[in-house]
Amino acid sequence: MLTLGVETSCDETAVAIVRDGREVVSSVVASQASRHAPFGGVVPEIAAREHVLALVPVFERALEEAGCAREDIDLVAVTERPGLLAALLSGIAAAQALGLALDVPVIGVNHVEAHLVAPFLVDGRAPEWPLLSLVVSGGHTHLFLSRGDEDHLLLGATLDDAAGEAFDKVAKLLRLGYPGGPVVQRAAESGDPEAVVFKRPYLSKESLDFSFSGLKTAVLYHCFGQTPDGKPGGDRLKPGLRVEDVAASFQACVVDVLDRKLRRAVEQTGVTRVAIGGGVACNGPLRERLRRTAAERQWELLLAPPALCTDNAAMVAARGAQVWAARGGVPRPLEASPRASWVRRPAGGTVAKG
Ligand code: KG4
Ligand code: ZN
């Protein structure tokens, strides 16, 4: 079965073709990053307009790279939530038009659940349960205990900024450009990660939630100083400040927090199979740290390859095939929404060790 995925939830226009929900046949991503860079972040209206322009050429390239014809497609899967509403709607409209033209069903996919599938799109392997999965992206920092394709219990999430958002905001503060993750990582390569010791936001001893907005504020005050009434001390970086050191110290803090929270989650659940996806999972030092921790603690670590960590449509097609199978091939109306929610572990609750 060939599923064609369409992804337009943020600033990447992507179309991919996946065979039997596992094998990536083609995956084309057109990034709009350069259009948003002058604004230091994604501008929703520009994103939607760019998707409308890019969708047809990206679709044609995906078919060409897959070496298949339109008529070979059996199912269309499209991200329907969460994301920027106008951006989502452009992808949904295109997917519905495709469904009509090809006379195939169209299924809506949750973008975060698609990120959960990405670590398994290597060697066409089947997901195994139970599994701890962390999605760290520009919009989400969500940690799940997954017990099946359709069973994701939310153990923790960010209370404010997502990890990728923190990278983007810190890059903006440090005048490094957009998107923040890659440029902060590059600057950090020539910086000292111990130059500034930013307080690690671990929250309470048991918590699996995350909070990165205080860290961003700490970087702000470190770089610009603070007035006696608690405001940033201007808009010029302090003279003599080594941007590389701040980038490396900030990155080290985020890596420490993500690593520590995953260790905590493993201790609390007894689950040692750990998967990680989302744009921040491209981060070199984070991947290195998690590989080390996994080796020390004998976890089975599944890291999505970088091209499948950032937004792509292969994960959307694969997730669409799962949802289609779970629903027994019964379509349901598409529902565009900026939000998504999951069943959450009760406060202070424990999860049976598995
Ligand atoms: O998954 P993604 O492409 O889009 C969302 O669903 O949000 O993630 C984009 C985020 C951005 O915030 C970007 O700065 C971050 O992933 N990112 C990184 C790296 N590459 C991308 N963060 C840290 N290090 C990287 N190398
Ligand atoms: Zn994403």
Reconstruct the topology from this structure.
Elements (H helix, E strand, L loop, with lengths): L1 E6 L4 E8 L3 E9 L1 H4 L7 H23 L8 E7 L3 H18 L3 E5 H7 L13 E6 L4 E8 L2 E7 L5 H11 L6 H9 L24 H12 L18 H27 L3 E5 L6 H14 L2 E4 L2 H4 L4 H13 L28
Parallel strand pairs: 1-4, 4-5, 6-9, 9-10
Antiparallel strand pairs: 1-2, 2-3, 6-7, 7-8
The structure holds 5'-O-[(R)-(carboxyoxy)(hydroxy)phosphoryl]adenosine and zinc ion.
The site of zinc ion has 5 residues, from α4.
What does this structure look like?
This protein is of the alpha/beta class and about 350 residues long. It folds into two domains: about 1-120 and about 310-325, Nucleotidyltransferase, domain 5, CATH 3.30.420.40; about 125-305, ATPase, nucleotide binding domain (Nucleotidyltransferase, domain 5), CATH 3.30.420. It contains eleven helices and ten strands. The strands form two sheets. A five-stranded mixed sheet has the order 3-2-1-4-5, with helices on both faces. The longest helix is centred in the C-terminal third of the chain and has 27 residues, at about 245-270. It starts with a strand and ends in a 28-residue tail after the last helix. Bound molecules: 5'-O-[(R)-(carboxyoxy)(hydroxy)phosphoryl]adenosine (KG4) and zinc ion.
